[in-house]
Amino acid sequence: MKPVLALVMTVFLASASAAQERLPETISPNVPKGEELDFEQFLWKNRLVIVFADSPNDPQFVEQMRILADRPEALEERDVIVLTDTDPAGRSAMRLKFRPRGFMLLLLSKDGTIYLRKPLPWDVRELTRSIDKMPLRQQEVRRRIEQES
């Protein structure tokens, strides 16, 4: 797994039933209050999937995190880092920048542009298909094929 600067990589997600489930290292926790997230650290290195909800017990949030945890290797292969924000009162830098209302899934390309916003959980297959359509991802795949030849 790739290290991600100063972000804490081991996460526990409290599901609606209050069970603890260990998530893969590609999934990062809520950024602690008062700490600014510098999106510049991800530019040209990682694609970001940001999952917003008003509570960690939001059924859509719980479902989305379960879906993402099922196939972390597909996300890692595409240089995806998953960030979450389930505290609207915390007014994190992510919330101020992207202004979610309730549950929202956001995909940012490596150049920092918003590629898609979804109001409902999305399957990893749908996410990876969207990523694979990105011009930079297509260049990465071509470069890898050329290097293997």
How would you portray this structure in words?
Pfam families: DUF4174. Residues 39-140 form the DUF4174 domain. Keywords: Signal. The chain has 149 residues and is of the alpha+beta class. It is 32% helix and 19% strand. It has helices at 59-70, 72-77, 93-98, 124-132, 135-148; strands at 12-14, 20-22, 47-52, 80-85, 104-108, 114-118. The radius of gyration is 15 Å and the shape is globular. Mean pLDDT is 81; it is low at 1-24.
Summarize, please.
The protein has 149 residues and is α+β, with helices and mostly antiparallel strands. It has five helices and six strands; from the N terminus they run E-E-E-H-H-E-H-E-E-H-H.
List the helices and strands and how they pair.
Blueprint: E1 12-14, E2 20-22, E3 47-52, H1 59-70, H2 72-77, E4 80-85, H3 93-98, E5 104-108, E6 114-118, H4 124-132, H5 135-148
Parallel strand pairs: 3-4
Antiparallel strand pairs: 1-2, 3-5, 5-6
Shape: globular
Strand content: 15-25%
Poorly predicted regions are 1-24
Per DSSP, the total helix count is 5
CATH class: Alpha Beta
| Radius of gyration (Å) | 15 Å
CATH architecture: 3-Layer(aba) Sandwich
The sequence of SSEs as H and E is EEEHHEHEEHH
Distance between the termini: 25 Å
By secondary-structure content and strand pairing, the structural class works out as alpha+beta
The CATH superfamily appears as: Glutaredoxin
Which bin fits the share of residues in helices?
25-40%
Number of strands: 6
The biggest sheet amounts to: 4 strands, mixed
- Summarize model confidence as the mean pLDDT: 81
Return the domain count.
1
